Structure formats: C-alpha cells, structure tokens
Amino acid sequence: MLLPALVDWITGSSGRTLLTPATNGHMSVGLMCHPSLQVFSLLLAAAVHDLAHPGVTNDFLVRTRHALAARFGGAEGGVNERHHVASFLGLLDDPATDAFAGLSHQDQLRVSTSSVAIRHPTRR
Q1: How far is residue 68 from each of residues 1, 58, 111, 119, measured CA to CA in Å?
Q2: Between 21 and 47, whose confidence is greater?
Q3: DSSP secondary structure, 33-81, as one string
Q4: Rounded distance, CA 113 to CA 96, Å?
Q5: Once rounded to an integer, what is the mean pLDDT over residues 103-112?
Q6: Among residues 5, 45, 48, 3, which one has the least CA distance to residue 22?
Q7: Angle at which helices 105-117 and 35-48 cross, to 10°
Q8: What is d(CA 88, CA 24) in angstroms, rounded to the nearest whole number?
Q9: Looking at residue 4, what DSSP letter applies?
Q10: Are residues 26 and 114 in contact, defined by beta-carbon separation less than 8 angstroms?
Q11: Of 24, 48, 86, 94, which residue is most buried, by most CB within 10 angstroms?
Q12: Do 103 and 71 touch, CB atoms closer than 8 A?
C-alpha cells in the first residue's frame, strides 16, 4: 500500500502533492512527463544523491587537499556533489549499468532534466 500512496503523492493524483515547480532552490520540482517517468526521476535522483560518497565533508576534502578536491574543488555545488554526478555519468558509459537503457531519447531528456531539477536548499 505504501508504493501506490507514494506514486499518488509524487504525481499529484491524490490532490495532496508537495512537488511544485522549482523556483526558489528548495526541494521542489515540476515534472512534466508521464507519472512512471516522474517516479523514475525521483528514485534516480535519490539513488545518485550520495553515490560513491567518500564519507567526509566537502570542507574536509578541500582542507586535506584530497584528489577529489583537486578535481572538483573550484566547482559551484561542492566537491562531493560533483563527484556523485561524475560517478553516475561514469555508470551510464557501461551498458550493464546504464540507467537510461530502454528509454527513448525524448524520455532520457525528460528524466535527466527532471532529476537535475530536484535539489535541496543551498548550504552556505
């Protein structure tokens, strides 16, 4: 029963959705695609959120001059966050781990755009 309720909440079918167009940097998103792609986009964003996390903060990586900081240090959005995305993109190169395999090109664009739009408040 939990999964159908979650799908209803995500897609707004219950009339009680908390997902709204992303305009202010808070956890919100306007997903303009089929409900199954909406759910896939949210699950994908959640899975990638901390993919290959090294277990330390951005500040620690920068202060210790870690290799990840050298690679992603000046990037807006944080060292770890850029590392998570780079790790995910690396998975897409392998057909065995390509999360977009089986999706049409148009649906791939919808999912990737929707997943990127899902974000949390900026931490400063």
Answers
A1: 42, 9, 27, 22
A2: 47
A3: S-HHHHHHHHHHHHHHTTTT--SS-HHHHHHTT-HHHHHHTT-TT-HHH
A4: 22
A5: 87
A6: 45
A7: 50
A8: 26
A9: H
A10: no
A11: 48
A12: no
pTM above 0.90, yes or no: no
Closest CA to 28 of 121, 111, 110: 121
What pLDDT, in 10s, does the model give residues 13-31? 654 444 444 444 444 444 5
Q: Is 93 exposed, middle or buried (0-12, 13-18, 19+ CB in 10 A)?
A: exposed
- Residue 117 CA to residue 36 CA, distance in Å, equals 17
Cβ atoms 13, 35 nearer than 8 A: yes
Q: Which residues have a Cβ under 8 Å from the Cβ of 81 and sit 6 or more positions away? A: 58
Determine which of 33-47, 64-78, 107-121 has the lowest per-residue pLDDT on average.
Answer: 107-121
